[in-house]
Amino acid sequence: MATYKELNGTNIEVLASDPSNPVEGQIWYNSTSNVLKGQSTTTTGSWATGTSLNTGRIEPRATGSYTAAVAFGGTDPGFSALTELWNGTNWTEVNDLNTARSQAAGIGASNTASIAAGGYFTPGSPYYTNVTESWNGTNWTEVNDLNTARGLAGMSGNAPNTAALVFAGDGTGPNRVANTEIWNGTNWTETTDLNEVKYAPWGSGDSSTAAICYGGNVPPATANTELWNGSNWTEVNNLNTAKQYVCGAGPSSTDAICFGGSPTPINAQTELWDGTNWTETTDLNTGRNSMAGTGTSANAMAIGGPSASAAVEDWTGAGAPQVRTFTDS
After folding, report:
1. 90 plus 18 within the same structural domain
2. pLDDT over threshold 70, residue 123
């Protein structure tokens, strides 16, 4: 029988501690713990408890990545203007929104360039706002308004200072809308409506020309999914479970993750989109809705949620590296 060295060209290393950056397939003997270890990848994704916000809230929004994000707005229980910055380790309170609100559309790929568009800002008519604010990493600045005031809209765009998309939502009245608007860095322009009039869906996508809208309330809660190609919306394969007040993350219209939602009981399900189908995978640790989500299908965060929660859950997708211990059983 061939030896390990004959097969791999090297002996198994003997190390006092695990290597800091092992490669997949690497094997070593840890002389401190007296165990044989190797580097592999995960086969399924998982949710883990993350670092909580400083202030819990319902229906905040967040943009950015798993290691650099910004969370803003919500209710706690009053309408909140709070903004918190995530650096991969801690949440830090920074400058507030100019208009306190919940249910805004939050768009952006970083914690230094984001947009907050629309939202729910008063308990009495007109209920919803069309105010848009741009975040530069330090301050929020009011820019040109949405054409249609709304909350609970879907959104797309990873370059929000120049290109973003807002669609569906609850309009003043309240009246559910299918309106779609494109942001060009200066103005919002109405374009082709969604096929389905609804509120409380979620959206993912990396631009204003490629987006996906999923879930929401028609009523009732819907599983419908639509793809945007820059000109039109096309119905594609549905979520496995109809849900509203759902959340999700990108990075694109062909690669997305959807998690949580309602109706009762509040949902913990997680589904992955591969550009053609939704596939159920590992549930959230706690069923939740009315939260913020940001990141990608590989690394995402579920932030806040019902009962003004400050809780954060971190998603690590399949294929992430992990150290495995070999046993003789």
Report:
1. no
2. yes
- Do residue 152 and residue 17 come from a single domain? no
Is the separation of the CB atoms in 291 and 260 below 8 Å? yes
pLDDT number for residue 109: 77
Residue 216 pLDDT level (bands cut at 50, 70, 90)? very high
Residue 36 and residue 58 in one domain: no
Q: Cβ of 239: how many Cβ atoms within 10 Å?
A: 21
- H-helix or E-strand spanning residue 135: strand 128-135
* Cβ-proximal residues to 2 (8 Å cutoff; 6+ apart), any chain: none
9: which 2 tokens? 């060209």
Distance CA 271, CA 278 (A): 6
What's the number of CA atoms in the CB half-sphere (13 Å) around residue 328?
A: 1
Residues 15 and 124 in one domain: no
Range of the domain at 287: 46-316
Mark whether 98 and 9 lie in a shared domain: no
Answer yes or no: is pLDDT of 6 > 70: no
User: Does one domain contain both 122 and 68?
Assistant: yes
- HEC string of 235-291 equals EECCCCCCCECCEEEEEECCEEEEECCECCCCCCCEEEECCCCEEEECCCCCCCCCC
How far lies 219's CA from each of 216, 222, 244, in Å? 8, 7, 9
How many helices (H) and strands (E) are present in the chain, helices listed first? 1, 29
Q: Are 47 and 282 in contact (CB under 8 A)?
A: yes
Split into its structural domains, the chain has a count of: 2
pLDDT at position 44: 83
Phi, psi (rounded to 5 degrees) for 307 = 60, 35
